[in-house]
Amino acid sequence: MRLTVYLAGEIHSSWRDEIKKKSLALDLPIDFVGPMEDHDRSDNIGEEILGEQPGAVFKDAAASSFNNLRTSVLMEKSDLVIALFGEQYKQWNTAMDASAALASHKPLIVIRPEKLHHPLKELSQKANATVETCDQAIKALSYIFD
Amino acid sequence: MRLTVYLAGEIHSSWRDEIKKKSLALDLPIDFVGPMEDHDRSDNIGEEILGEQPGAVFKDAAASSFNNLRTSVLMEKSDLVIALFGEQYKQWNTAMDASAALASHKPLIVIRPEKLHHPLKELSQKANATVETCDQAIKALSYIFD
Amino acid sequence: MRLTVYLAGEIHSSWRDEIKKKSLALDLPIDFVGPMEDHDRSDNIGEEILGEQPGAVFKDAAASSFNNLRTSVLMEKSDLVIALFGEQYKQWNTAMDASAALASHKPLIVIRPEKLHHPLKELSQKANATVETCDQAIKALSYIFD
Amino acid sequence: MRLTVYLAGEIHSSWRDEIKKKSLALDLPIDFVGPMEDHDRSDNIGEEILGEQPGAVFKDAAASSFNNLRTSVLMEKSDLVIALFGEQYKQWNTAMDASAALASHKPLIVIRPEKLHHPLKELSQKANATVETCDQAIKALSYIFD
Amino acid sequence: MRLTVYLAGEIHSSWRDEIKKKSLALDLPIDFVGPMEDHDRSDNIGEEILGEQPGAVFKDAAASSFNNLRTSVLMEKSDLVIALFGEQYKQWNTAMDASAALASHKPLIVIRPEKLHHPLKELSQKANATVETCDQAIKALSYIFD
Amino acid sequence: MRLTVYLAGEIHSSWRDEIKKKSLALDLPIDFVGPMEDHDRSDNIGEEILGEQPGAVFKDAAASSFNNLRTSVLMEKSDLVIALFGEQYKQWNTAMDASAALASHKPLIVIRPEKLHHPLKELSQKANATVETCDQAIKALSYIFD
Amino acid sequence: MRLTVYLAGEIHSSWRDEIKKKSLALDLPIDFVGPMEDHDRSDNIGEEILGEQPGAVFKDAAASSFNNLRTSVLMEKSDLVIALFGEQYKQWNTAMDASAALASHKPLIVIRPEKLHHPLKELSQKANATVETCDQAIKALSYIFD
Amino acid sequence: MRLTVYLAGEIHSSWRDEIKKKSLALDLPIDFVGPMEDHDRSDNIGEEILGEQPGAVFKDAAASSFNNLRTSVLMEKSDLVIALFGEQYKQWNTAMDASAALASHKPLIVIRPEKLHHPLKELSQKANATVETCDQAIKALSYIFD
């Protein structure tokens, strides 16, 4: 049995690499998918495909249509979603992805530093589990196969 | 035909009053529901019901279980959700509620100041409509009955 | 038992009035809902609410978000959908509404002139019933209560 | 991860070949499926299987039952739907397939010439993305794997 | 709390009247709905609405589209389905309605004479309850309110 | 807005009366439903309706078909489920009802004495909220309307 | 792409062999599944597993629980259902399986001799296609891959 | 065709080994999954991953979040669930898993000693089949492939 895990969350740090390496080291039968991690490309994909748009709001609307298309396809293929929240950025699309996962019965692990417990309390309470580090998330994944 | 509309979003300003008053002035057949608007009570409801918890994280976990219970019941009764994002606070529960609404086929109107267009672009693209003011949201509601 | 019926289809002729009058004459316990029938307003609702848009495509995108919002809310409240196809116009939104009705288990009656049988054959085959006139549709509605 | 993509739309031009060739050139892990592309056979399949029918309407009803059977099976197997609208023909079955895809949570890309933006505005607004050329659709597919 | 109960099954005897009278005598808060009980009209409704059809099979196809439309609307409004099987007739539409009820989570009571236990064994096993008389079905309904 | 609340759990003590009285005292707009509370009748309902069965297992099978029928109808009508676990009895049907509620998106409040926390830990973690007394459950219900 | 097809219907003739052979001859990528075809074993499976039951009705109840278990598992694995009706027997479980297939969005082909058109008219109208012979059903399957 | 079967129930005896060995002996194409069978680890997994918790209730809450995560992922992958009830322990999570399986349309076999028929009567009545021994469950699994 192989699992596919969608890694939702910010694309400014290398947390996905950490998770993938540790999963590999443990030989977990998991394939990881996630959003476009090249931040500029994620912002520009609308104009890259459709050409110049009439202003920043429209550029964003075009980009998000392709980002959401990617997320929809890959999340549908996933058995479990991990959503990481960091201390920077609004990360509303992370909250959106996490909630969409729950609503479509995909088990959800939230990773967040303890200091974010208050603004994330409602989402944590809905998630299957909330942890603070990638190491803990890997332990949770590993436990599924033990 | 009466509609029930869930008003998701921050509970620090009086935007819900504005919407309710304008809806009343237009005689729209709409009942509004939403989260507990007394911020302290929302934070303390877990300990109010269950007694003192062993620390802030546990206090939040207890509170969020009753806040999510309330939201689940009231959102299920709603025909449409309006989610307002302001310039302060993390508002991850607003994003969570908005995404849960979409996932359960509740039409969604997002209200946000234009300057937040970038961090909200993926959620806006999924919403049925995105507007900038409560007035515009009221016009959208009113259009349903015209 | 009262039923709510959504009347999908073109907004250039008075077919909805004909159906409503005949239903009233037969005293059928039916409430009818449907799209905005003022064609100009339907085209302009995006700019009416959001202000001027940067070109015709964007004006249409804005308008359709509010038209789809209206349709989603009203169709969800409906027990049955009637979709009328005429000989003019593309009417792709009518086909979209009819198919969305079927996909969400709303019974569907298609009204179309016989001469349109070929391009509508796949939709007719999926519909619960296909008729040629409003009179026949009224008979089908009436039969539910007989 | 391989994806299956259903190509809905007219069967008079070679747009499916263009998409398949470009996908192959990019080595995208995609299997394409779609309707019967032999137009005469699609029209005659009812009589081919069931024998002569009593008139054109009944011949169409018989044909569409097998066409819809094929579409149901293949679309259910698909992860994503592309619907192309051209300038000719009614294409109501394309709109029907596109809407059915959305209603069953299959991500949808609409391809249409810009000049069709007005009659397709409601469907475009519901689609995950709308593009104008097969090249752009391929870029959108490719972005899912980047 | 009022319930709506769909009475599926043959339309040649007066079993529906028996159930309605006994329910009334017990003052049960139940509204009963069901198929067209005028057998000739049920067979002829297709031609009554659409005009003469080219043969018996097509007459039946037309009639069944309106009979199924009626059933779909009324069963969707129902909280519970009772399906009665008698010793005559094929009654495949009764089995179809009973199975559709189960598949859409409508509780199902089957009424059948004991001697039919063998051919109905798979359906009885899926039903919530199987009884032999209308009296027993009324007791089951009554038990819901006790 | 009125809510319907299903009270699942043992039928040997008067906890339902306590909840109903306290809800009445607070004037909460709630209708309560639940299982047959006459324990003997609940055990005998199968033979009461169907006549004597060939042994205890068959008597139980007959009874449970009518008990489950009742539960299905009433739970489907409910907006929220409260499941109380006491220190006696197996209460597997309570756990079954609680889990069925969660699986069909009915919010769930578990009431259990603290000493049962260990055997109920998986169910508590899935429930929207777990409390220890009827008083606390009433506060949770009341909070929905505050 | 391989398909799995469930063959519902009577188990007294060799129609399944005919379908399997013709599918093999055409090299169709289809795996066929279906009910236990050994009629005696299908009737006796309850007592074979659970031991002697107290009478014919209970023997049937036991058998049908294992027959329905088998059907549930295999139908869930299927992409399409073929239901054959012959001129003998009640075949209510065939109608039940056909209706369950439709209700869970499995495309359905009905095979029946023309003379059965009247009692099957409502089921035929709901099926994706109705044919008269196994040959025609094979042509319909084959068309999916052409 | 391979099946995946989830083995829910107590983790104090070796009943899973018995089932796996007998399945292997019969060469059944079945993969078995289930909960963590190391009882201590199942109780301690919360603290193993998250560190010490403030008391037994919180330790249990933490453990159950990871146990439920594991169950959700593995049950979603399963085609059938077997739930075994023994004479010891509360086994409320077994009842919860069994009911969740039913609610998500996973066929369910209950194994229980006859003496437990009374407290399990409602769950047995909902299950696809109830047997008394692992041997009987294996016969039921085997019957699916015969």
In short:
Eight copies of one chain form a homooctamer. Helices cover about 50% and strands about 15% of the residues of chain A. Chain A is an alpha/beta fold and about 150 residues long.
Give a verbal description of the structure:
Eight copies of one chain form a homooctamer. Chain A is an alpha/beta fold and 146 residues long. Chain A has six helices and five strands; from the N terminus they run βαβααβαβαβα. In chain A, β1, α1 (15-25) and β2 (30-33) form a beta-alpha-beta unit. The first copy, chain A, is globular. The model of chain A has no long low-confidence stretch (mean pLDDT 97). At the A-B interface, α3, α4 and α5 of A face α3, α4 and α5 of B.
Write the layout of secondary structure elements.
The structure is a homooctamer of 146-residue chains.
Chain A: E1 3-9, H1 15-25, E2 30-33, H2 39-50, H3 56-76, E3 80-84, H4 92-103, E4 108-111, H5 121-126, E5 129-131, H6 134-145
Helix pairs in contact in A: 1-6, 2-3
The SSE order of chain A reads EHEHHEHEHEH
Give the strand content of chain A.
15-25%
Greatest interface: A-B, 37 and 37 residues
Task: Give the helix tally of chain A.
Answer: 6
N-end to C-end Cα span of chain A: 12 Å
- The number of distinct β-strands of chain A equals 5
